[in-house]
Write a structure and sequence with these properties.
Number of strands: 8
Shape: globular
Number of helices: 16
CATH architecture: Alpha-Beta Barrel
Strand content: 5-15%
CATH superfamily: Metal-dependent hydrolases
Bound molecules: adenine, zinc ion
CATH topology: TIM Barrel
Distance between the termini: 25 Å
Length: about 350
């Protein structure tokens, strides 16, 4: 299948909301090399080509090992600013007008980088994005699920002075063997502090992790959630309450969640009536940003223009913004689609 010029134009023209983007996963090899040199950090690559060759994954863990190694080059507040600003330039190329970005504080505080440098750099770049380009944003702090709940509690404490800059908490990293139940206490505490709640669930692990995330973590959005298709009862539940699923097609292909793009289940999820939207996860590692996810979907699945527009609108419907802002963005989508 090939994507028609009019579909390509539509995807480019639609304003979009990014709801599932790990800022550390937007670290392009060029910036990785520059920061490695500046900060005197050893990386296991000689050339950019070496890096791209290493980005050949067979599951989530094989990616995470490389992703955490790459993050070591991020050391100062300026580094986090530069990382985030480079991502904002990608937002402009991809017509992303609202972005809700994840960061993994434990990946950095574990190495002695102060929490304040991480959040300070990200926040400053997002403030500039708003004032210079009108891009709206919020920040979601993820707990690393391969670490203990006690570590997550300590991270939550560390985040409290920055509570006004962090809209929510999430859960990411190695899924299988680290079920949502492990973090029920810290999610309850985060909710009591007023944080919104999201969690990666049903990316690689089976659908029971999605039920657990709903039952025990009381999340407002599911990140990935593609394994829900294996439970009729869960599908009905997700449809009934229009629970958002932030699906990341390129990621699912690169991490071998599906063997081939033509086997991706996004059309089934959508046609069943689930609130599915499309996002880019770790675009520097997964061969493309938001638009590339849509282009690939259209190349490999018989996506209609109506489906593309629905996926884009669902992104705004599921965003952590007020109803007036949602209505404004949805009107912009309608205008661009027309
Ligand atoms: N951290 C960064 N990307 C991730 C993914 N796709 N799944 C879980 N944790 C992640
Ligand atoms: Zn993710």
């Amino acid at each position: 299948m090939s994507i028609t010029p009019s579909m390509r134009q539509l995807i480019q023209a639609l304003p979009k909301a990014e709801l599932h983007l790990h800022i550390e996963g937007s670290l392009e090899p060029e910036l990785m090399f520059r920061l490695a040199k500046k900060n005197n950090v050893a990386i296991p690559y000689d050339t950019i080509e070496d890096v791209r060759r290493a980005y050949n994954f067979n599951n989530l863990q094989s990616f995470l090992d490389i992703y955490y190694a790459g993050a070591n080059v991020l050391q100062t507040q300026d580094d986090f600013y530069d990382l985030t600003w480079a991502y904002i330039e990608k937002c402009r190329e991809n017509n992303i007008v609202h972005t809700e970005i994840f960061f993994d504080p434990q990946t950095h505080t574990e190495r002695g980088v102060p929490f304040s440098a991480v959040i300070g750099g990200i926040k400053a770049a997002l403030d500039d994005a708003r004032s210079q380009h009108g891009i709206t944003s919020c920040i979601i702090m993820c707990f690393l699920r391969h670490l203990s709940e006690a570590d997550a509690f300590a991270t939550l404490e560390e985040a409290l002075p920055y509570k006004d800059d962090i809209i929510g908490v999430g859960l990411d990293s190695s899924e299988v063997g680290n079920p949502p139940s492990k973090f029920a206490g810290v999610f309850k505490a985060a909710a009591a502090h007023g944080f919104k709640l999201v969690a990666h669930a049903g990316e690689e692990a089976d659908f029971s992790y999605i039920n657990e995330a709903l039952d025990l973590l009381n999340i407002h959005r599911i990140d990935h959630g593609v394994q829900s298709i294996h439970s009729d009862a869960l599908m009905l539940r997700l449809k009934d309450n229009q629970m958002p699923l932030t699906v990341c097609p390129n990621s699912n292909i690169e991490l071998c969640v599906f063997d081939h793009y033509s086997e991706h289940n996004i059309k089934e999820l959508l046609s069943y009536g689930l609130n599915v939207s499309v996002h880019s996860d770790d675009p520097a590692y997964f061969k493309g940003y938001m638009n590339q996810n849509f282009f690939n979907l259209c190349e490999h699945l018989p996506m209609t223009e109506e489906e593309v527009i629905t996926l884009v609108k669902n992104g705004f419907r599921s965003a952590f913004i007020d109803d007036a802002a949602k209505a404004q963005y949805l009107a912009q989508v309608d205008a661009a689609a027309a």
